[in-house]
Amino acid sequence: MTTTEQELLHRIENGVLWLTLNRPAASNSLTWAQRELLIELLTEASATESVRAVVLTAAGQKHFCTGMDLRSSPGTKSLLAAAETPDDDASPKPPVRPTGYATRMMKTGVQRLTNAVLDCEKPVIAAINGTTAGYGMSLALACDLVIAADSARFIQIFTRRGLVPDGGSAYLLPRLVGPQKAKELMFFGDDLPAAEALRIGVVNKVVAADELEAVTREWAERLATGPTRAYAFTKQLVNHSLESDRVAAFDEEARIVELNMTSRDANEGVASLMERRKPEYYGW
To answer: Which of 10, 114, 167, 180 has the greatest number of C-beta atoms within 10 Å?
Structure first.
């Protein structure tokens, strides 16, 4: 097992892909290598029929994820190396952080991971075991369902460090809580306790910390026995509805309903209704 695989544990149980951030000593901050493996595993999950739901959680009880570990960034290392290298040549040198550097880092970095969660064709549940801050909160917001321990906290910490929210936070958070509340959370960067996160719609359910895994497993395995393609199409419709007008949304709905009716599970669902029995879904 590689270092990255040790820091991002992954296993499939009863149709559920469990992804566990495993750097509790580093507050479960994400390394660049972890990010790339997460993207790879989420992409594979879409194409793997034996995976029918995904859980994203973290080791320990204090932190879910506190954002990206900047020390692990190849770009940061290059900047530090450039700053330490003596300049004996008087010819003009390009800046160590040229125009476009940050844009490229966003598009090829955290935005790719957020998109990997949003585009995953299987339902993704975030099980928030502790504090989630910065990009860690962006990652949680991208998940389809969020279950939080009662001790969890959510922090839009960016502006407290003079930074702009990234990883999709400014896109995702207003769609959950409205623009005014989103700006309050982003401007002040105050802790958002789990109970308040539930009240305003950031999370779906709050449970005692010692019940988090069991409740998450119950939800995930329930999804893993359901009509997987119908979930994928439903996720697509809901996500697209936030940018569509009514005509476009209804048109996409009609096309996807027809497409879904080609699946085995949709036909099984209709047959079970007619035959007055419990449906048996296979995921395709």
So the answer is: 167
DSSP state letter for 20: E
User: Domain spanning 3-71+105-224: which superfamily?
Assistant: 2-enoyl-CoA Hydratase; Chain A, domain 1 (3.90.226.10)
Do residues 44 and 5 lie in contact, with contact meaning Cβ atoms separated by under 8 Å?
no
Q: Domain extents for the chain?
A: 3-71+105-224, 228-275
Cα angle 126, 142, 172; round to 5: 135
What is the per-residue pLDDT for 79? 47
In the predicted model, is pLDDT for residue 179 greater than 90?
Answer: yes
The structure's pTM equals 0.90
What ranges make up the beta strands (E) of the chain?
Answer: 8-13, 16-21, 53-58, 63-65, 124-128, 131-133, 145-149, 153-155, 192-193, 205-207
User: Residue 171: exposed, middle, or buried by beta-carbon count in 10 A (0-12, 13-18, 19+)?
Assistant: middle
Higher pLDDT, 243 or 128: 128
